[in-house]
Write a structure and sequence with these properties.
12 strands; 7-stranded mixed β-sheet; globular; binds pyridoxal-5'-phosphate; 5-stranded mixed β-sheet; single chain
């Protein structure tokens, strides 16, 4: 462990999860696509199965691919190393990971704990999962400041996102962990990645990622991962075995392949975001820009303390409201109008109409997700080219609302 602590993140990213390669005599992660494994020794096979079913990290035989896969396990060990966690458990998507951790927290252990404290805003899917009642949990939505008052005797986790989707607000993890009175705090760190923040070092019990975003980084893998103690990991593996939300080994291979460039990608995109956010802040069509790196946008000085940089996601409110936002989505030529984020290409989307569509409208507005809000995930293109594209789309949106004033009225978005 002392070796990892001395080496820089870039070195770790390039080598993590590859320790056994020289023993195996390979240079790239082997992909094991087996769904089942030969079991000539029934006694040994039963012992492997018992061990994996109890949440064990590995066994002499994987037995069956829903129980274990070595390609996936290799990427998990890489993520654990990056998050400075004992263990990490991979899932088929970020939502599968969040569902598994809620099931693990609420259903396993001696006493069932059916209450969750959640800090809004959250990713639309997470918010909807909690509010829908699907998992039969009681939810209290709280501000970071009022977490202590929201805790009940059977609260199983406090769930928060920082930076939060979509308005990139930062939450002080250490402060929330203090207020949680011993209840485990779970941080969705998708926007930050281990390059910018390590929530476990700030007092979180678990960190979760939609690896579909920056960790995958190329818009071609759907994945999720949870990192924390081995005790939590064992529970999560048990849930994964039973519910089947396993990560495909091809996806794990692609995720592992993306790690050596993670820091380069996040930092380059962050620099692009800096240039675009700064210009948007002075643009007449824009009412407000959300990016924690702007002056005054991080009053608690969490950047430098909790995060090493503000990241590559920003959002902005258009003065022209819904119609201006719709116009920009239709007018960008290089920027891709699409949901998701953290891809090599720059993506723009309308949270109220898309990613946060299923969030309760009142809560949505209270979280600052208005009809004129667009979220931009800055990619790796030259920021000057991106700005030219965005500025042209903003101009078009501005002149459209001048020429056709009727279009500026906001239609009801349920
Ligand atoms: C996308 C996202 C998720 C959900 O992940 P999927 O991989 O799409 O299931 C969860 N949290 C955040 C912050 C996200 O951006």
């Amino acid at each position: 462990m002392t070796r990892e602590r001395k080496e820089s993140l870039e070195t770790l990213l390039t080598h993590c999860g590859r320790e056994e390669f020289s023993r195996l005599g390979v240079h790239a992660p082997p992909i094991d696509l087996s769904t089942t494994y030969p079991l000539p020794d029934l006694g040994a096979a039963t012992a492997s199965l018992d061990h994996l079913a109890a949440g064990g990290a590995e066994a002499p035989s994987p037995v069956y691919a829903r129980l274990h896969n070595p390609t996936v396990a290799r990427w998990e060990s890489a993520i654990a190393e990056l998050e400075r966690a004992e263990s990490a458990v991979a899932f088929s998507s970020g939502m599968a990971a969040i569902t598994a951790l809620l099931l693990a927290a609420s259903s396993l252990g001696e006493a069932r704990r059916r209450h969750v404290v959640a800090v809004r805003p959250l990713y639309g899917g997470t918010d909807h999962l909690l509010a829908s009642g699907l998992l039969n949990l009681r939810i209290s939505f709280a501000d970071p400041e009022s977490v202590a008052e929201a805790i009940e005797p059977d609260t199983c986790v406090v769930l928060l996102e920082t930076p939060a989707n979509p308005t990139v607000g930062l939450v002080d993890i250490e402060a929330v962990a203090r207020r949680a009175c011993g209840v485990p705090v779970v941080v969705d760190s998708t926007f930050a990645t281990p390059v910018l923040q390590r929530p476990l070092e700030c007092g979180a019990a678990l960190v979760v990622h939609s690896a579909t975003k920056f960790l995958g980084g190329h818009g071609d893998v759907l994945a999720g991962v949870v990192a924390g103690s081995e005790e939590w990991a064992a529970r999560l593996r048990q849930v994964r075995i039973l519910t089947g939300g396993v990560l495909h080994p091809m996806a794990a291979y692609l995720l592992h392949r993306s790690l050596p460039t993670l820091s380069l990608r996040v930092r380059a995109a962050q620099e692009g975001a800096r240039r675009i956010a700064t210009r948007l802040a002075g643009h007449p069509a824009i009412e407000r820009v959300y990016w924690p790196g702007l002056p005054g946008a991080d009053p608690e000085h969490l950047i430098g303390r909790q995060m090493s940089g503000p990241g590559a996601i920003l959002a902005f409110d258009l003065r022209g409201g819904y119609e201006a936002a719709r116009s920009v989505m239709g007018a960008v030529r290089r920027i891709v109008p699409a949901v998701s984020l953290g891809s090599a290409d720059t993506l723009i989307q309308h949270p109220a109409g898309l990613t946060h569509r299923l969030v309760d409208p009142v809560a949505r507005r209270a979280a600052g997700i208005g009809d004129g809000l667009l979220r931009l995930s800055v990619g790796l293109e030259d920021p000057e080219d991106l700005w030219r594209d965005l500025a042209a789309a903003l101009e078009l949106a501005g002149s459209a609302s001048l020429l056709e004033p009727s279009l500026t009225s906001t239609p009801a978005l349920a």
